[in-house]
UniProtKB/TrEMBL annotation:
Source species of the chain: Arthrobacter cryoconiti
Domain Lipid/polyisoprenoid-binding YceI-like: 15-182
InterPro entries assigned to the protein according to its UniProt record, in alphabetical order: Lipid/polyisoprenoid-bd_YceI (IPR007372), TTHA0802/YceI-like_sf (IPR036761)
Pfam families: YceI
Annotated SUPFAM superfamilies: YceI-like
Record protein name field: YceI family protein
């Protein structure tokens, strides 16, 4: 039995643009060892170039570091500052895919993620949610993906010791994507 082509899924070859109003780049990090802080980046640009197969398909994304939003203005200001993202010196986070593998429904997206000028290879486990034409005639494709990174590997090393032991902010950060792309032209 042969693997269906991407065309069979409705994901046609060519350029697709991230629909920022129907997409979210989220994160979660453990705080004080007992709860999680969740949030998102509100300024994201992305492009999907669909090839004849997954192996010939690419994804790029640029995130404005100053769009970090955890719902707490004081925390957001601290994370945007020199202790974490240092948005004045490093205004963007960038992802460029290097390979995509798997099936048409479940895939692994591997690429280079750059945060604070440090680039590391990351792999996101993803799910293709399908293609639909909206009431305005735009063709849309939906995807979900998730990965976990070590923030220390990207130079995000600030922390504070807790009186009972442990640290205030965990090293592990979970990144979640729930995104929609619109077929260009």
């Amino acid at each position: 039995m042969s693997t269906p082509t991407l065309e069979a899924t409705g994901l046609t070859q060519g350029a697709w643009t991230l629909d920022t109003s129907h997409s979210e780049v989220g994160f979660a990090v453990r705080h004080a060892g007992i709860s999680k802080v969740r949030g998102k980046f509100t300024k994201v640009e992305g492009a999907l170039t669909v090839g004849a197969s997954l192996a010939e398909t690419t994804v790029t994304a640029t995130i404005a570091a100053d769009s970090f939003d955890s719902g707490d203005a004081n925390r957001d200001g601290h994370v945007r500052g020199a202790d974490f993202f240092d948005v004045e010196q490093f205004p963007t986070l960038v992802f460029t895919s290097t390979s995509i593998s798997g099936s048409n429904e479940d895939f692994e997206l591997t690429g280079e993620l750059t945060i604070r000028g440090i680039t590391k290879t990351v792999t996101l486990n993803g799910e293709f949610n399908g293609v639909a034409v909206d009431p305005f005639g735009a063709t849309r494709a939906g995807f979900e993906a998730k990965t976990a990174i070590s923030r220390k590997e990207f130079g995000l090393t600030w922390n504070a010791a807790l009186e009972a032991g442990g640290v205030l902010v965990s090293d592990k950060v979970t990144i979640t994507l729930d995104v929609a792309f619109v077929k260009a032209g």
